[in-house]
Specification:
Its main location: membrane. It is built from 13 helices and no strands. It is mainly α and 348 residues long. The chain has one domain: Mitochondrial carrier domain (Mitochondrial carrier fold), CATH 1.50.40. It starts with 6 loop residues before the first helix and ends with a helix.
């Protein structure tokens, strides 16, 4: 995510790209959430992705059904990605300033100490190349980039977690597979504020921040995705195309990097959704920790149950991440072109 644009513009382009990608795949996101919510059920009672989508489309008002909760989800996506990209870019630029002020001084060769070496510049023959003796600002290490990503993820996800919880509740509230006792005509879509109020009345502040524990290690996901994307760009693209790669490659690399980052962390995604679903309502009920939830899920359905809904998550991530990278890149290129055109008009 190396760019010379200000953090605000990078954050805006990233948030816009994420929102566009999210809107495109939202029905798939809804189906995936419902599959994840049913992970506690026996395997033969769970629907696959195709059957879940068919079930959603079988409703009379299927358009309102497949887009239920999109308002909260779009708001969560916009805020989360804006805060993430803004924080990430600001910290990255701050780290660059720090490295510039604390450059690495190249070590001299011991056998050259006290000797006079020839100067390629021909200035007195008292020094070697200036680039070899002047301090050089060091580039951020992979560990520094990863820590910046984790910190950015903690800030963005921590702030938007209540809205994410609202989104999960709204996505599963009209699921007839989980609410079999609820009459179809009594079902009513609640607004964001109504859902927030309901969750607070049920579980207090703790309920609004359900899924916080799995969210903490999941902050690795965006930074890991960006890191893998950067590695793929360096490995697969020639140097002349790395700054502005073709649109198709940008989409493909963004999608592949998201898939490679998601698979090892997916069980945590599942646990987060189960925590936010509100199955165990009430302030006085014992709430299972992450390890207890993992063990319970494995005992019921085996290891494969931990990957319930993975196919939907991967397809959703392929499209969403690819579109986000594509839109972000195009917005940034448009801003740069507009700035250059304006500068040229001023100097002309």
């Amino acid at each position: 995510m190396n760019s010379t644009l200000p953090p605000f513009l990078q954050a805006s382009s990233g948030a816009l790209g994420s929102a566009v990608g999210n809107a495109i795949v939202y029905p798939l996101d809804l189906a995936t959430t419902r599959m994840q919510n049913n992970a506690r059920r026996p395997h033969h009672e769970r629907l696959n992705l195709r059957d879940t989508l068919s079930h959603l489309l079988s409703h009379n008002n299927y358009l309102s059904e497949i887009y239920s909760g999109i308002g909260a989800d779009t708001l969560s996506t916009l805020l989360s990605n804006f805060i993430y990209f803004y924080t990430y870019t600001s910290l990255q630029k701050g780290l660059h300033v720090w490295h510039t002020r604390h450059p690495i001084i190249p070590s001299q060769n011991p056998h050259q100490h006290g000797s006079v070496s020839s100067s390629p510049a021909g200035i007195g023959g008292l020094a070697s190349k200036a680039s070899e003796i002047l301090p050089k600002p060091s580039k951020p290490t992979a560990l520094e980039e990863l820590l910046i990503g984790i910190l950015s993820g903690l800030i963005s996800k921590g702030i938007t977690l209540p809205i994410s919880t609202v989104c999960v509740r709204q996505q599963i509230e009209n699921d007839t597979d989980t609410d079999t006792d609820t009459d179809e005509k009594d079902k009513k879509d609640m607004t964001l504020l109504e859902t927030l109020s309901t969750i607070y009345q049920e579980s207090g502040i703790e309920g609004l921040f359900s899924g916080l524990k799995p969210t903490i290690p999941l902050t690795l996901l965006p930074s890991l995705t960006l890191y893998i994307h950067t590695v793929l760009v360096r490995l697969l693209l020639p140097a002349r195309h790395r700054t502005h790669p073709p649109a198709g490659l940008t989409f493909l690399l963004g999608a592949v990097s998201n898939a490679l980052a998601t698979i090892p962390l997916y069980p945590l995604v599942l646990i987060k959704v189960l925590s936010q679903s509100g199955r165990d309502k009430g302030k006085n009920k014992h709430k299972l920790g992450m390890l207890e939830t993992l063990v319970k899920i494995i005992k019921r359905g085996g290891i494969r149950t931990l990957y319930t809904g993975l196919e939907g998550q991967l397809v959703k991530g392929l499209v969403q991440q690819g579109v986000m990278m594509l839109v972000k890149q195009r917005v940034e290129q448009g801003v740069i072109k507009a700035y250059k055109a304006r500068s040229h008009a001023v100097t002309a």
